[in-house]
Amino acid sequence: MMGYRHLKHDVRLAARGGRVIGSVVLAALAASAIAQTVPPKRAQGRPAPAQAAPAQAQAAQAQAAPTGSGQTVQDQSVPDNTGLDIPTNLQIFGKVDPNVRKPTAIVNDTVITGTDVDQRVSLVAMANEAKLSPEDRERLKLQVLRQLIDETLQIQEAKTADITITPAELTQSYDAVSKRFNRTPVAMRAFLRESGSSERSLKRQIEGELAWQRYLRRRVEPFVNVGDEEVKSIIDRLQAAKGTDEFNLKEIYLAATPANSQQVYANAKQILQEIQKGAQPFEYYARQFSEASTRAVGGDLGWIRAATLPAQLAEAATTMQVGQVAGPIEVSGGYSILYLTDKRQVLTADPRDAKLSLKQLTLRFPPNTNQAQATARAQAFAKATQELRGCGTVEKVAAGIGADVVDNDTVRIRDLPPQLQEVMLKLQVGESSPPFGSAEQGVRALVLCGRDEAAGGSVPNSEQIQGQLEQQRVNLRAQQKLRDLRRDAVVEYR
């Protein structure tokens, strides 16, 4: 989100007014390619994934307030609204696989080489700190190739509007990225080469983002309007929904039929067990196994109200704790696994948004400490922290047990692990949390020195809502324009 404007289309790097892109280039690359570049198909009545501030995200949801039950699984029937004359029992003649693409393409006379694809894949892997298996790398190549084709089309279209990104602008943005990665431009160049990528690949990404953003500002934004009545309607909906619970959910959906229901259920249980081991994040399994269209965004359903969910999922969501995974849950057409990442109330202050002033005590264990020794040390540590008399005594107690002390005055409760959130909500100023840690990393405790309570929720003003609606419409027209460019492009694979 930039101010109150939240970009929802595939252009993820903001370059408002020609400003330098910044350090999010590589992270956005990783998220976009690994999560695929195809925007998820949303079920009717479901808000899109929200990364915006609560009030503005809720404003967007109010715009599309549901009138009936939502749907979280993909339709199993053949759509009848395609406008195409497709036989019901069709037969594929031949063995052509449309996903088998050689890593070289010509897009309206612009060549994308195999090296371009390989270097962008390496850039994505480096930014995501991912170790790709040969299968994952081949799958990622297809996604990156599609992304490079879109990027090429965007640059070409920008040039038709006399928009060209100068070498000086590219260098400025590249230098800013290097700085935010704590590297000089020369060191960044070497780092990219070591990762199998190149400075040219990163600059090409920057050029595409800058060119497309400027094209939208010149050719799309001036023609977008939002009426006063529309803004008022959204404000009224927000006020009516005040205090309603919302859940930030991720989902893995597995389709099932009566013939294979037991096998699918067993598969879902196995996936759930793997998730609970914690070896990979939930999003990894969603992208690998989910059969819903939200697999492209790691299963993200965004902020959603229970009333828009099927009854089985609504019941699960309302009983889950933040950070909990539930399932397999039988739903129409299959089974779902749910992950509750956050919870809030519309336009209501959330205690977990409170900012804490903390002192952290850390007692590190010597190498080769076994579990029994770690438990004994942790018990001594716990006794010492219980004897604390406010934050003024933390340093003295720490010195007596050989612990380190770190101060932090800007920690939000919701940024802590779920287990610690519940603890910190109940602590009074001057009290210490119970010890936590491991035999390998030592034991820690958090001492609460102050709390700035979260401000009460308020309805965004009309200018904020208008700005967000305008940006949403710009994004929608950008998606439509990109679809037109893809349709009209001459793309030759070699």
What does this structure look like?
There is one protein chain. With 494 residues, the chain is an alpha+beta fold. 43% of the residues lie in helices and 15% in strands. It has helices spanning 24-34, 54-63, 114-127, 134-160, 167-180, 185-194, 199-219, 228-240, 261-277, 282-289, 311-319, 371-386, 394-401, 418-426, 462-488; strands spanning 105-107, 110-112, 245-255, 300-304, 325-331, 334-345, 355-363, 404-412, 436-438, 442-452, 491-493. A four-stranded antiparallel sheet has the order 4-3-6-5, with helices on both faces. A four-stranded antiparallel sheet has the order 8-7-10-9, covered by helices on one side. α3 (114-127) packs across α4 (134-160). The protein is globular, with a radius of gyration of 26 Å. It starts with 23 loop residues before the first helix and ends with a strand. Residues 1-57, 62-71, 73-79 and 96-101 have low confidence and may be disordered.
Summarize the structure.
By secondary structure, this protein is an alpha+beta fold. It has 15 helices and 11 strands. It is globular.
